[in-house]
Amino acid sequence: MNWELKLQLAAHPLAYPLVRGLGRIAPVVRVPRVGVVVSDAGIAKQVLNDPAHFTKTGPGSPADLWTPVVGPTVLLNMEGAAHAELRRKLSGLFTPRSVADLCARVADEPVQRLRDDLAAGPVDLVRVVRRLVGAVICELVGLEPGEAVAAHAAGTAITSMVRLGRPSLTPAQVRHGRQALGTLTRPAARAYADGDPATVPGRMRRLGLTEEEALGAVAAFVLTGTETLVSYVPRLVALLHDSGWLDRLARDRTRADDVIAEALRVTVPSPVMLRSVAADTEVGGVRVRAGDRVVIATISAARALGSFDPDRPHPPDVRQLWFGAGPHFCLGMPLAYAEIRAVLDAVLDCAPLSVVERRAARRVLIPCYERLVVRRG
C-alpha cells in the first residue's frame, strides 16, 4: 500500500473508499443524505463555472457550514456582485510584489533555519511547515510571530469539525468555532483599527475594505490556508522522495512548477467541494432541483488521470481543478505557491535526503502526515 493511500484511509477510513467507489460507478451519482456526487473533471468544471445554477450560499453549501462561525462576508460563503467586489478589493494583497514582500518578511527566517537544521541532523518537516504557515497567519491577522503554533491550532480547530455526511455544524461546534476564530480576529480587529499599512488588516483598510469585510477575509485565509499547506508540503517532499524525483529536481529545477502542479493533482488539497443547486437543471445527465446538494469529488476527478508522473501534461479539465474554477478560483494561489517554493528550494538545497520516519495523521479533514522526518544523505 502506498503512502498516499495510507494518508487518505487514516483521515477518512469510510468516506474515502465511498467517494472513490462512487467515481467508479458513474461520473455523477445521487447518494441519499450526501447529495449528488460528481467525480468527473469536465463536469466538475462545468458546475464550478455556472454560479447561476450552483451556488455557495444555498442549502448544503459552504455557507451552511461557515456562516454561523465566521459571519456572512467571507469569500467562502458569498456569491454575485458582493463577492466579486470583495475579491477586487483583496486582489492587491496577492500581486507578485505583495506576495514576495510578505514571504520575505515571514518565510525567510524559518526557511533558512530549515536549511541549517537539515545540515545538522534529522528534521520533522510537518513541524517546520506548521510553524511557517502559522507565521503567515500571524502576519495576516496581526499576531506576534511567537503565536504561530497557536494560530495554526486555531484554524485546524475549526476545520476539523467538518464531515462529508453532515451539511452543517452543531450549536456546540459553532460555539467552539467562534471561540477559536476569536483568538485570530481580535488582534486583526485591533490592527485594522490602527490602520498601519505594515499590517495586512491595516492594508485592507487602506484598500477600502470595511472592518466586517477585513475580518471575514482573515477568516477565509485561516480556513483555506492552514491545513491545506501543512498537508501538502510534506506530502510533496514524500512523493518526490518515493518517486526518485527529489534528486532529479535538485539537479534541474526548471521542472519545479510541473512537479508542484502534479503533486497538487495527486494530493488534492481540496478533496471535496460543495455547491447548492440554485435553479433546476441537470448535472452530467442527472436532473437536480433547487436546494439539492452537489458534492464535487475533486479527489476522484483529479486522481483519475493516474499516479504521480510530472512528465505527463494535465488536460484542460484537470488543470488547477484543486484551486477551483470560475468566480471562486483560489485568490490566495500566488501566496500558496510562494510558500511551497520557499520550502521546496530549501529542501532541494540540502538534497540528497532520505525519509527516516513517517506517520499518518488520523481523523483529520485534509489527509496529512502527523510526522515526516527527513535527513541529509
TrEMBL record:
Pfam families: p450. It comes from the Bacteria. Coiled coil: none annotated. InterPro entries: Cyt_P450 (IPR001128), Cyt_P450_B (IPR002397), Cyt_P450_CS (IPR017972), Cyt_P450_sf (IPR036396). Keywords: Heme, Iron, Metal-binding, Monooxygenase, Oxidoreductase. PROSITE patterns: CYTOCHROME_P450. Belongs to the cytochrome P450 family. PANTHER family: CYTOCHROME P450 YJIB-RELATED, P450, PUTATIVE (EUROFUNG)-RELATED. This is Cytochrome P450.
